[in-house]
What does this fold into?
Amino acid sequence: MRLRHAWPVFLVLLLAGCNALRPADPVSPAAPVVEDSRGDDAARVLAYYAQLRQLPGPELAREHESARRALAKSRSDANRLRYALLLTLPGAPATEEPRVQELLEPVTRSSDGALRGLAVLMMAFLQEQRRLETSAQGLQQKLDALLTLERNMTRDSSGTRKR
It folds into this structure.
C-alpha cells in the first residue's frame, strides 16, 4: 500500500534526473571564447599570498623589502596589493593597519575589477577586524570591572564575618 504512494515521487525524481543530464544551453561553435585576463591577476595575487605564508623569517624579510622597493618604483595596483598582503600576514604588527588601508584605498577606486575586488575584500576584512578588536577591548574592560567588583564584594563580606 505504501509503495503505491511512492511511485509518483519516484517518477518525478526520475524525470528531474533526466532533465539534469541534458545540457542547459549548448554553446554555439561560432561564438568566440573570451577570457577575462584580469582574473589571472587575482589568481596570481592569491597564489603569491599562499607562497608568503610558507616563507621562513629571513626570506619573508627579503620579500618584504623587495615588495617595498617595487612599490616605490611603480605604484601599480598589483604592487600595492603585494605590499599590503605582506603587511597583513599573521604576526604582523597591528600598527601597520593604517598603512595597509592607505595602500588599498586607490586600488578600491581603480577600474581593474579583479584587483579592485580583492582590495575591497581586504578593506572589509580590516574594518571588521578593527570592529571586533574594539568590541573585545570593551568586553575586556567590562570583565575587569566585574572582577574588581567581585574582589571588593569578597573583601567586604569576609571583613564583616571576622568581626
Observations:
- The chain has six helices and no strands.
- The CA atoms of residues 71 and 79 lie 5 Å apart.
